[in-house]
Amino acid sequence: MEDNCDALGSTYEIAGEIRKTGTIGDIGTSSFYPPHHMTMGEGGAVYTNNPLLHKLVNSFRDWGRDCWCLGGIDNTCGCRFTKQFGELPLGYDHKYVYSHFGYNLKVTDMQAAIGCAQLEKLDDIVERRRHNFKVLRDGLEGTPWLILPEPQKNSNPSWFGFLISVMPDAPFSRNDLAKYLEAHKIQTRNLFAGNLLKHPAFDQMKKEGKSYRVIGDLTGTDFIMNNTLWIGVYPGMTDEMLQYMISTIKEFVAQFK
């Protein structure tokens, strides 16, 4: 299963073939929450080109139902009232047979309409995000004490945001930089949860004696938790806005030279 929620529109070269991320795994996922590449206000999508996985995904989406009729259509299988399922009575209505513990994860018609309109703009959105990233990357090149993002080898990202890390020996902290930017009307975000093990939820798990597995010492995770933040590459930003972001960051850092 390939988590493509923050990378919609990115490409990755595999064995000489350029592939869209999200199409490399058996199942891909994307998020359509407002900060993501395209939005339906909330929700997301799961996609696959495997017919069996498609059937299973639809079942989990629709409360775990065994029925695979399209909406508004009955008895596609031709045996709606003739089969035996589990310990149910013979001929139990197939539309109400549950083969999985599922969910109710369908989007509304309004969300779907917004998503279809956004899909038509997706190529332009990706192009602008790449442009905005390049402007920020070129403009901040060489700024002391900052680690700037680099694309993975063989990739062409559709950037979710612009990640900045403050070096451990810097005379200021990540929070110092964040507060300065926020005070100058530039929004920032941490890289999501950082080290999840440090959150109160895991304190509760420990109190309840619940176990979990940790792989490695999480040094990189702790670094990101303490030293890293995002600024945006939203496609609606103008070059003037991007230059303001660059100059504000440089002004902050210049105080410590």
Notable features of this structure?
6 helices, alpha+beta, single chain, elongated, Aspartate Aminotransferase, domain 1
- Label the CATH architecture of one domain: Alpha-Beta Complex
Q: How many extended strands?
A: 10
Structure classification: alpha+beta
Uncertain runs are none
Major β-sheet, in short?
A: 4 strands, antiparallel
Sequence of strands across the biggest β-sheet: 6-8-10-9
Could you tell me the strand content as a percent range? 5-15%
Mean pLDDT: 95
- Return the string of H and E elements: EEEEEHHEEEHEHHEH
| Apparent shape | elongated
Describe what you observe in this structure.
With 257 residues, the protein is an alpha+beta fold. The protein has a domain at 123-254: Alpha-Beta Complex (Aspartate Aminotransferase, domain 1), CATH 3.90.1150. The chain contains six helices and ten strands, in the order E-E-E-E-E-H-H-E-E-E-H-E-H-H-E-H. A four-stranded antiparallel beta sheet has the order 6-8-10-9. Strands 1-4-5 form a three-stranded mixed beta sheet, with no helix packed on it. A three-stranded antiparallel beta sheet has the order 3-2-7, with no helix packed on it. It is elongated.
Compile the SSE list and pairings.
Blueprint: E1 2-3, E2 11-14, E3 17-20, E4 28-31, E5 44-47, H1 51-61, H2 109-140, E6 146-147, E7 155-156, E8 162-166, H3 174-183, E9 189-190, H4 200-207, H5 219-227, E10 228-231, H6 239-254
Parallel strand pairs: 1-4
Antiparallel strand pairs: 2-3, 2-7, 4-5, 6-8, 8-10, 9-10
